Amino acid sequence: MGLGMSNVISYVLIFIITLSLIGTAYSYIAPKISITRKESEFDYMVVQMKNLDDRIKDVSRSGEGAKDYLSFTLREGTLIISNPYDEVTYIILNKQCFQKRENIGGLYFEYEISGEYCENKILINYTEINITNNVSFSGLFDLWIENIGYSNKPLLKVG
């Protein structure tokens, strides 16, 4: 009876030790996977924001009544269209700031620490275009761009 019981105790201890090792490995690896996934989403949005910038400029040059649209899928973060500043901003929060990037064409990168999080931003600032509305997006959406006229500079409705 004692020999059979010691085998059971051995198996239980091995199971508990294995389970605790798996839990420890998971708690170490899970945050790293999350950071990598968010940084990958940020890199994807660099390409999308460059495409959006090109489309906005094309609609602006094409004259009143010109329209275009883009489809977006944001798994993380928020896209903000801002009227008072005539800018488009993508923001993703993370525990760490992503690697510093050089500005690309009309895209600018900013990083702000807000409490225990870092706001990683991609900005497009327009000086020759008036954006006429404020709106923010996340998830899956279509973004419409429409040239609605001219008043010292082209007026665009983006949203």
Largest sheet report: 7 strands, mixed
Give the helix tally.
1
- Series of secondary-structure elements, N-terminal to C-terminal: HEEEEEEE
Proportion in helices: 25-40%
Mean pLDDT: 86
Overall 3D form? elongated
Question: What's the topology here?
Answer:
Blueprint: H1 2-62, E1 67-82, E2 87-94, E3 107-114, E4 117-125, E5 130-131, E6 135-150, E7 154-158
Parallel strand pairs: 5-7
Antiparallel strand pairs: 1-2, 1-6, 2-4, 3-4, 6-7
Description:
The structure is a single chain. With 159 residues, the chain is of the alpha+beta class. The protein has one domain (41-158). Helix content is 38%, strand content 40%. It contains one helix and seven strands. It has one helix at residues 2-62, and strands at residues 67-82, 87-94, 107-114, 117-125, 130-131, 135-150, 154-158. A seven-stranded mixed beta sheet has the order 3-4-2-1-6-7-5, covered by helices on one side. The longest helix has 61 residues, at 2-62. The chain is elongated. The termini are far apart. The mean pLDDT is 86.
Summary, kept brief:
With 159 residues, this protein is α+β, with helices and mostly antiparallel strands. The chain is 38% helix and 40% strand.
